[in-house]
Write a structure and sequence with these properties.
Layout (H helix, E strand, L loop, with lengths): L1 H20 L1 E5 L4 E5 H6 L4 E5 L9 E7 H5 L9 E6 L4 E5 H4 L8 E6 L20 E6 L15 E7 L2 H4 L14 H12 L24 H4 L2 H9 L22 H16 L1
Helix pairs in contact: 6-9
Length: 272
C-alpha cells in the first residue's frame, strides 16, 4: 500500500510539473494571471503567422501565435518600462516596451508563438532534441541586426512588466562626466541588449547562464585583446566545452564598432 501511495504521489507531482511547464504567467506590478497553452491556442486573438527568417531555427517557420501587444492590454504600463521574458532555464531578458508596442503597421512585430500539439515544433539546431516549446517570442518582418537575437526567447515561462535595467541596476551606468560620444555609453546599451540575459555584472542583472563579467575579474583583465574579439565572434574557436551556451555574434548582430564599444564599457568599468 505504501508503494502504491508513493507512486500516486510521484505521478501527481509529475503531472503538476508538466502542467506548470505548459503554463504562462503574465504579470505587472499589481498582480498576475496564468494561462495554459490550450487557453492561448483557443483564444480568438490567435492566428497563423509565417516567420521568413527565424533567428533560432535559421529558416522559415510557421506558428500559431498571438500578438504581444494583445497580451499586454489591461496591464499597468509606463512608456519607459521594460518587459522581462523569463524562460524555464532561468534565461531572462528585458525588452523595451517601445519595441513591443509598435504603433500602426510599423515593424518588426513581436508575437507569442504557442506550440500546437497537432503540429509539434522541430528540435532546435545544435540543441539535440530540445525544441522551443511550449512558448516562444518571435519577430515578424525583422531586418538583419534590427532585433537582438536575445529577444527571441524560447521555452518561455513568464512575461513580467518591470523597470528598465538602467533603473534597476544603476551600478551599470557610466559617470555623467563621461563625454556623450564616449564608446562606453554605446557599449552599455549593447551589453543590456545582448549580454545581460546570461551575464551579470558585479551581481547586477538576473542572468544565470554565464559567469559574472565583473567579478572576480573583468574579461579585459584576463583575455588577450585578439583572443577576446575572436571569442565574441565565435566562442568555440577560442574555448569549447560540452555545455557551452555562449553564442557567436556575427557582424549583423554585433558590428565591429559595437564590439569595440562593449569592450570600451568593460574596460571603463574595470578601471573605475
Amino acid at each position: 500500500m505504501i508503494g502504491h501511495g508513493l507512486v500516486a504521489l510521484f505521478l501527481s507531482l509529475l503531472f503538476a510539473a508538466v502542467a506548470e511547464a505548459q503554463s504562462l504567467k503574465i504579470a505587472d506590478r499589481k498582480g498576475s494571471k496564468t494561462f495554459s497553452a490550450a487557453d492561448l491556442l483557443a483564444s480568438p486573438l490567435a492566428r497563423d503567422i509565417t516567420i521568413a527568417r527565424d533567428s533560432v531555427y535559421g529558416r522559415t517557420m510557421s506558428y500559431r501565435a498571438i500578438p504581444v501587444p494583445e497580451l499586454l492590454k489591461g496591464l499597468e504600463l509606463d512608456p519607459k518600462d521594460y518587459v522581462d521574458f523569463v524562460a524555464t532555464d532561468k534565461f531572462s531578458i528585458g525588452i523595451p516596451l517601445r519595441l513591443l508596442l509598435r504603433p500602426g503597421s510599423a515593424s518588426p512585430h513581436a508575437y507569442l508563438a504557442v506550440e500546437d500539439p497537432a503540429r509539434p515544433w522541430p528540435a532546435m539546431p545544435e540543441k539535440g532534441k530540445e525544441t522551443a516549446a511550449p512558448f516562444f517570442i518571435v519577430w515578424q518582418d525583422a531586418k538583419p541586426g534590427e532585433i537582438s537575437p536575445e529577444y527571441w526567447v524560447y521555452k518561455l515561462a513568464a512575461i513580467e512588466v518591470a523597470d528598465s535595467p538602467y533603473l534597476r541596476w544603476p551600478s551599470l551606468e557610466v559617470a555623467e562626466s563621461l563625454p556623450a560620444t564616449h564608446p562606453a555609453r554605446r557599449g552599455l546599451d549593447r551589453y543590456v541588449a545582448l549580454c545581460i540575459s546570461c551575464h551579470r555584472f558585479k551581481g547586477a542583472g538576473q542572468g544565470e547562464q554565464g559567469p559574472d563579467l565583473g567579478q572576480p575579474m573583468n574579461p579585459v583583465d584576463y583575455f588577450q585583446p585578439l583572443a577576446f574579439r575572436k571569442f565574441l565572434r565565435s566562442s568555440k574557436q577560442v574555448r569549447d566545452w560540452p555545455d557551452r551556451k555562449m553564442p557567436s555574434f556575427n557582424e549583423e548582430v554585433l558590428s565591429d564598432e559595437d564590439m569595440e564599444a562593449v569592450i570600451a564599457w568593460l574596460t571603463y568599468k574595470a578601471r573605475n
